[in-house]
């Protein structure tokens, strides 16, 4: 049923809610009586507004021309404009005649905005007749001269609009908004007592920066970041290849996928054959990397003590060790060590040392240049040094400082992997941690040479002189110095702490880079902050709106509360400008949805598609209608009716 179909009174009214649709009609032209050319002339027939508002009129006996009923007839104003009683009163009010044009469908009228509770102080109910001045009670667009001086109605409306924009920001000083004159004049208007403004609690649902007016790129996650995250997400979800004959369940891990080829030459870790798998833990649902040492029978449970020690180390440049166990699920005795999994990770060797296949550049097949930029090299040096320091400080040694055991898990982010395995495998051998720590430093030097020369053989001690000569052509003297230091003879001063002292300025530079990177990511996060909840809200509205099975249901027709949801959808998405062109304004959409999600008391005017009726309703009400409609749908779905 269309609005206005209620032929009896020309507007529909729903007693179950405080909202009322009001039919829009052309202004009624009352014939002027010959005796009263101006509307003021019949004012003695009309009740004085001061009586309605303040209970008395100080000009009653001083020439006020309006009707003053006997004292017992006067009931003081009790209802706030937004109270249900007041709303019911307004529902039965005379036909609403909009003053301004309604060519912009569903726009919030200024008259509604002007009702904003936050900034229009309610006059104290105890006000005496001395506190106000005489005014024309029958001009609904009247503003006291004090309030706006010489400003036009439009100017004042614009200021009210500005106040509306900041209505939720209680921290904003009205004087900063250029409203000082209005505020001061309002104080003069209600001098005794001053109205008290209650500080509302902050509503963080509204504290967003939804400023994009169009769907420009700047407001969304950059393509490269999104693609990388998407790729990782897909890799995590890749299903295991059929026919690999892998166990379905491995001590609480399932969906086992090998991360390296199972055919061909077996990979070696020292003397042991090894394979790395990705598997999902059934308890937490998180993917982990499982390194399996094939055909290895652990002689004693004390070998696991080393894994426990590694389990306690948490460092941003070390792949954390979760647990270790033995298994016969692969039809042999295997030792499995479980690590954190980094989707799409590469080893340092694969990323920067392994020769790449030649590729076509400008139509020519060319060898790909992989030369590591010096600032990236220093970043790797600082990160690896920091990881080694964390291990040495605990009286342990890494023992797996090798380009094939260091993972590149993000752009220029490296982590020591495969930690703890050698400790578990060689638990019986006598341990001299100091020697292992010296070895860590020497291997660290070898990694730097390998990265600079892109050749593992260059890092062998007998090739060092030639390697230094080669890398000296590309890299600074500082790089050469630290390589010499790391390859140097062991001694009490050759510690990772001293090494970090030597490269102190590079550490500071790396720290700056990290902070900048965190800032950048946080900025990205800010852009994405609201998306999740707004998408949920949009999904709800999508489920509710335009369901064909509800086409004939009374609750969805123009008299039902769910009709409001339809109109609200139009208000949010289908606005048109004064020329009838669609308004594509993302800011408007985000602002509306944020207010809807927060369920604010702010009221908006919804207008029917035929522009024959309008409805003033708060976001809070609309939120309630959407929630109830959606829960009805959900109930119907679960009970199998849909
Ligand atoms: N924790 C992990 N998270 C994600 N991927 C990993 C993890 N550990 C290893 N990998 C991946 O598993 C694959 C095999 O790892 P592995 O350490 O055996 O490297 P490799 O290049 O095969 O070295 P090697 O030649 O010594 O066997 C590599 O592609 C590596 O990126």
From TrEMBL:
This is PAN2-PAN3 deadenylation complex subunit PAN3. Regulatory subunit of the poly(A)-nuclease (PAN) deadenylation complex, one of two cytoplasmic mRNA deadenylases involved in mRNA turnover. PAN specifically shortens poly(A) tails of RNA and the activity is stimulated by poly(A)-binding protein PAB1. PAN deadenylation is followed by rapid degradation of the shortened mRNA tails by the CCR4-NOT complex. Deadenylated mRNAs are then degraded by two alternative mechanisms, namely exosome-mediated 3'-5' exonucleolytic degradation, or deadenlyation-dependent mRNA decaping and subsequent 5'-3' exonucleolytic degradation by XRN1. The pseudokinase domain, the coiled-coil (CC), and C-terminal knob domain (CK) form a structural unit (PKC) that forms an extensive high-affinity interaction surface for PAN2. The lineage of its organism: Eukaryota, Fungi, Dikarya, Basidiomycota, Agaricomycotina. Residues 261-544 form the Protein kinase domain. A zinc finger (C3H1-type) spans 42-71. The gene is PAN3. GO terms for biological process: mRNA processing; nuclear-transcribed mRNA poly(A) tail shortening. Its main location: cytoplasm. SMART domains: S_TKc. It comes from Neolentinus lepideus HHB14362 ss-1. One of its GO terms (molecular function) is protein kinase activity.
């Amino acid at each position: 049923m269309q609005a206005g179909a209620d032929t009896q009174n020309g507007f529909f009214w729903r007693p179950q809610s405080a909202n009322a649709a009001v039919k829009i009609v052309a202004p009624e032209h009352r014939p002027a009586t010959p005796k009263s050319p101006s509307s003021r002339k019949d004012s003695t027939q009309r009740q004085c507004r001061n009586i309605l508002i303040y209970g008395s009129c100080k000009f009653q006996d001083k020439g006020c021309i309006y009707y003053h009923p006997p004292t017992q007839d006067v009931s003081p104003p009790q209802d706030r404009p937004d109270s249900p009683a007041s709303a019911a009163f307004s529902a039965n009010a005379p036909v609403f005649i909009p003053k301004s044009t309604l060519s912009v469908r569903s726009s919030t009228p200024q008259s509604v905005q002007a009702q904003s509770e936050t900034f229009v102080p309610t006059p104290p109910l105890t006000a005496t007749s001395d506190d106000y001045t005489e005014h024309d009670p029958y001009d609904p667009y009247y503003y006291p001269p004090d309030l706006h001086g010489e400003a036009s109605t439009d100017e004042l409306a614009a200021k009210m609009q500005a106040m509306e924009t900041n209505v939720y920001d209680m921290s904003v000083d009205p004087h900063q908004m250029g409203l000082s004159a209005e505020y001061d004049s309002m104080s003069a208007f209600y001098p005794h007592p001053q109205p008290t403004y209650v500080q509302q609690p902050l509503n963080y649902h509204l504290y967003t920066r939804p400023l994009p007016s169009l769907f420009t790129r700047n407001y969304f996650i950059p393509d490269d970041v999104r693609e990388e995250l998407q790729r990782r997400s897909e890799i995590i979800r890749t299903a295991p290849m059929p026919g690999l004959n892998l166990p379905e369940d491995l001590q609480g891990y399932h969906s086992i996928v090998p991360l390296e080829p199972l055919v061909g030459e077996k990979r070696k870790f020292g003397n042991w054959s090894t394979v790395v798998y990705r598997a999902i833990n059934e308890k937490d649902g998180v993917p982990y990397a499982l390194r399996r040492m094939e055909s290895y029978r652990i002689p004693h449970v004390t070998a696991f003590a080393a894994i426990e020690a590694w389990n306690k180390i948490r460092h941003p440049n070390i792949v954390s060790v979760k647990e270790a166990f033995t298994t016969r699920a692969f039809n042999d005795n295997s030792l499995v060590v479980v690590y954190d999994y980094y989707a799409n990770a590469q080893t340092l060797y694969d990323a920067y040392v392994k020769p790449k296949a030649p590729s076509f550049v400008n139509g020519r097949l060319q060898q790909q240049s992989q030369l590591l930029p010096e600032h990236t090299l220093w970043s790797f040096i600082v990160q690896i040094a920091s990881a080694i320091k964390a291990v040495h400080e605990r009286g342990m040694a890494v023992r797996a400082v090798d380009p094939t055991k260091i993972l590149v898990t993000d752009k220029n982010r490296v982590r020591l992997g495969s930690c703890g395995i050698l400790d578990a495998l060689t638990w019986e051998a006598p341990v001299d941690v100091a020697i292992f720590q010296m070895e860590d430093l020497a291997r660290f030097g070898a990694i730097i040479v390998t990265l600079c020369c892109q050749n593992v053989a260059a890092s062998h001690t007998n090739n060092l002189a030639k390697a230094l000569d080669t890398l000296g052509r590309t890299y600074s003297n500082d790089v050469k110095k630290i390589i010499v230091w790391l390859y140097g003879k062991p001694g009490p001063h050759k510690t990772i702490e001293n090494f970090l002292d030597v490269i102190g300025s590079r550490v500071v530079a790396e720290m700056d880079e990290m902070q900048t990177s965190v800032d950048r990511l946080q900025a990205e996060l800010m852009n994405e902050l609201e998306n999740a909840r707004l998408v949920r809200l949009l999904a709800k509205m999508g489920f509710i709106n335009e369901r064909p099975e509800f086409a004939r249901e009374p609750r969805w027709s123009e008299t039902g509360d769910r009709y409001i949801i339809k109109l609200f959808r139009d208000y949010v998405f289908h606005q048109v400008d004064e020329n009838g062109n669609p308004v594509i304004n993302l800011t408007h959409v985000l602002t509306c949805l944020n207010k809807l999600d927060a369920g604010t008391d702010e009221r908006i005017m919804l207008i029917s598609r035929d522009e024959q009726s309008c409805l003033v309703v708060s976001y809070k009400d609309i939120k309630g209608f959407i929630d109830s409609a959606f829960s009805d749908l959900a109930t119907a779905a679960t009970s199998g009716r849909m």
